[in-house]
Input
Amino acid sequence: MKFTYFGHSCFQLHTQGKILLFDPFISPNPLASAVSLQGIQADYILISHGHSDHIADAVALQRQTGATAVANWEICSWLERQGVERTHPMNTGGKWKFDFGTVAMTSALHSSSFPDGSYAGNPSGFIIANDEGTFYYSGDTALSSEMALLGKRFDINVAALPIGDNFTMDYQDAAYASEMLQCNTVIGTHYDTFGYIEIDKEAARQYFVSQKKTLLLPAIGETIEI
Ligand code: NI
Ligand code: MN
Output
């Protein structure tokens, strides 16, 4: 699998010849101003919850790419009302076998509403599993004992977890989460975008080293092999 970071919690997973785009939020992100929206490709767009910092470019990028949106029922219905035709609704605890592997929708300890304040269902995360590996993206979440269950139920190789604190876990909680997930490699997301979530990246990396774990913080626009 390959992982391309676009800032905040927006990234692509390249696997089995498909491109999965997660939580599209590029055009409003000043840190991602060098990323061209027009250059973004996707076969699938996976959306964890309805907050604008996860959904801002979803409709535009679905129109541009023709990708299938994968999200909970409420988010898929919201996209359909804006003319998005290709959607695959799921809900927490459910799995579906796509042409790139299996997606399991997991729970997240957060809130979820659309930019107009209306109900967006429960916030979620995703586990992507195929013979290239198993990747977990938690979405915006607090540290949760559910993660110990995921660690038992799935053989997770890499986890993308929020580390910015204030709205989600901080990096110390993310290291604790990685213990519960039985996964020692974490990609940090949801940090530095706004003042509330600015972090000391070197301190975060060092903390992971002290816990005998790895924190990957790819640059915006960088692709890494995972
Ligand atoms: Ni959120
Ligand atoms: Mn967020």
